[in-house]
Design brief:
This protein has 284 residues and is α+β, with helices and mostly antiparallel strands. It is 42% helix and 12% strand.
Length: 284
């Protein structure tokens, strides 16, 4: 009788394991660092503030350095011959976001080390890869015609210093138009470069969309988003400037802030100036 019960339990256990795989809803633990916020973390991992708060039973938005947060993200175990760049390329994520997610400042990794893959949900990486492969094949086979499906993927990112979608290119161009419509072309490229510099920095969101729509309290980082000017279409010059900024051209000389000559904000004016172009001052 005992043997029969044991066999029954084994069958039931096997059935449960089939229904509920070993991988849990949370494959990764992210360690909070200085200047982190729930918004920045949600942008990095392509999730929402509310989900992070719910998953970690947080009652407020307050977090502190060293705190570990459960994140719905795939992890990767480093193998011999791996580099951060190779891993980022394999999973179609930016090197900056991979380093930020794992609090890596340099480039050294070791075999057996577990890395969090930002933006890739548990059990979704294979699905994402197949979708991107299909889009890439579609783009290749239809190189002579416009590929609407491919335009929303990162298949056209090879010419850019960061991954971006067609929608993000348009968003960046509209920000440039709103911020520098009366300025020189060089100033327009510099405005775009500031956004790119923020994406590449571990202190900001890891995508163009995340950076431009970043919000603290009731205020957005960029006034055109706050006042609605971002919704206006971009000119050809602003689109061209956005494309050029995405190739790595940076007249701002590494700036992550900019302001016009009318600004009286003492905090922004205390920043190190990297370039002055027309009525715009760029700083970091």
């Amino acid at each position: 009788m005992i043997k029969i019960i044991k066999k029954f339990l084994v069958v039931i256990t096997s059935f449960v394991l089939i229904l509920y795989p070993a991988s849990t809803a949370y494959a990764a633990k992210y360690t909070v660092v200085k200047n982190d916020s729930l918004y920045k973390i949600s942008s990095l991992f392509k999730t929402t503030v509310n989900k992070i708060k719910t998953d970690n039973k947080l009652k407020t938005d307050t977090i502190y350095p060293g705190q570990k947060l459960e994140i719905d993200a795939k992890t990767y175990t480093v193998k011999k011959g791996d580099t951060l760049s190779k891993i980022a390329k394999k999973y179609k994520i930016t090197l900056a976001s991979l380093k930020k997610a794992n609090n890596i400042s340099g480039s050294k990794i070791k075999v057996g080390q577990k890395l969090i893959l930002p933006g890739i949900k548990v059990n979704e990486d294979s699905k994402s890869s197949s979708v991107n492969t299909a889009a890439s094949n579609s783009t290749t086979s239809n190189s002579g015609s416009k590929n609407t499906a491919g335009s929303t993927t990162t298949s056209s990112n090879t010419a850019g210093v960061i991954p971006y979608t067609q929608a993000e290119l348009d968003l960046l161009a509209r920000l440039i138009e709103a911020e520098a419509s009366g300025e020189s072309y060089n100033a327009k490229v510099a405005v775009g470069a500031v956004v790119i510099n923020r994406v590449q920095s571990k202190d900001w969101a890891s995508s163009i969309n995340g950076v431009i729509n970043e919000k603290y309290g009731d205020y957005y980082q960029f006034s055109p988003v706050q006042n609605g000017m971002i919704k206006k279409p971009a000119s050809d010059a602003s689109i061209k400037a956005a494309r050029e900024a995405l190739t790595g051209k940076d007249p701002s000389k590494g700036a992550i802030f900019y302001y016009d000559s009318s600004s009286t904000n003492t905090w922004i004016r205390s920043k190190e100036v990297t370039a002055r172009i027309g009525n715009l001052t760029f700083a970091k």
